[in-house]
Amino acid sequence: MISPRVTVLMPVYNGERFLHESLQSILCQSFADYEFIIIDDGSTDNSLTIIQSISDSRIQLIRNEINLGLVATLNKGVKLALGEYIARMDQDDVSWPDRLTKQVDFMDNNKHIGVCGSWVRFIPKGNNYIWKLPESSEEIRCWLFSTVGVAHPSVMLRKQLFLDYDLFYTSAFQYIEDYELWVRAIQFMDFANIQEPLLDYRISSGQMCSVYGAEQLAAVAPLRLQRVRELGIDPTPDQQQLHEMIMNNLIPAESLYLDRVEQWLLKLDSANRAIGTYSADCFSRRLLDIWFSICITLADASVCSLRRCLLSPLWAAVNNPVWHRTRAFGAWIVRKIV
C-alpha cells in the first residue's frame, strides 16, 4: 500500500453547525494525495450522521467509544496518520482550496521546516480581518515568549520529526495544548508561516478560548514564567502578575501602570541582550509590538498619547527606529480615523 503524502487530521465533538462546510473545504482541495482522518470523540449531536453522509474513499472515520477530550484524540490521530505531513483542521474552520498544495510545496522546498502555518482570516464577524503571523522561525520563537506564533488549525507538521523527538500533545495543558507543544518543538526544528491566508478561522462563542478563557490564562502563566526565567530574571509575585497583565493586554487605564509596563519591557529587553536567548533585534521588535498595542488600548481610555508612546526608549532598541516610529505613527492615525 502506498502511503498518502498528507494526513488531514480533524477531531470532531458536537460540531454539527459548521461541520459540513469544513469537511467540504478539505474534500475540494486542489491537492488530492491525502487521507482524511476524522475522529468523532463521542458526539451526542448529528455530527456522526453528517460525516457518514459523505462518500469519499479518502475519509477514514474513527469513533471514540467515550469522550477522550481533544488532547488524547489529537495524539491518537498523530499515531494513526500514514502521511509524510499532518495537516491540522478544526471542525468549524474553512481551508482555502489551495491550502494543501501551497503547504506541501513549501515543506518540500524547505526540508528544515518542521511546522508550517499560514495567515488566517477571521470569520464570520471579523470584518475580513487577517491575522498576519510572523514569517521566520526566529520571529516565531520571539512570539512564543508570550503567545502562539502559529495558528493551530492552519499548521502542517513533518510527522517523522515529531515522532523522532517524542513530541505529542500534553494532557496537563488541555486548554493551551498547542502553545505548550510549540514551545517544546521549536527547540528541535524550524517553524514558518506562509505569508498569505490559507484558512478561515471561525470566531464563535463555542470556541475553546471563549468557553475556557479563565482556564487558559491560568494554564499559560507558568509557561510564560519559564520563558522569563530563561532570560535570567526571577520575577517577584508582583512582577509576575504585571507580566501576565502585559502579555494579555489587561493593563488598567492608569498612567502609573503605563510607566510600569515600559520599565518591565525594558528590563526584559536588557536581560535578553545580556544573555542572548533570542535574536536581539527580533526580540526588541516583539516587545515594541506589545508596547504599541498597550499604548493604543490605553489611548482609547485617554491615558496614553501618541507622543508618550513614541518617546519610549523601546523604539531606540530596534534597528532603524525612525522607520518603526513612522510606521507606528501611520497605524495610530488610521486607528483613530477608523
The total count of strands amounts to 9
> What Rg do the Cα atoms give?
21 Å
Query: How helical, in percent, are the residues?
Result: 40-55%
Coarse shape: elongated
Just name the CATH architecture of the largest domain: Alpha-Beta Complex
Q: What count of domains describes the coordinates?
A: 2
Q: What structural class should be given to the helix and strand makeup?
A: alpha/beta
Mean pLDDT equals 93
Number of H- or I-type helical stretches: 14
CATH class descriptor name of the largest domain? Alpha Beta
Into which percentage range does the β-strand content fall?
15-25%
Stretches where pLDDT falls below 50 for ≥5 residues? Answer: none
The topology string of helices and strands comes to EHEHEHEEHEEHEHHEHHHHHHH
Tell me the span between the first and last alpha carbons.
57 Å
Q: What is the CATH topology of the largest domain? A: Spore Coat Polysaccharide Biosynthesis Protein SpsA, Chain A
CATH superfamily of the largest domain: Spore Coat Polysaccharide Biosynthesis Protein SpsA, Chain A
Largest sheet properties: 9 strands, mixed
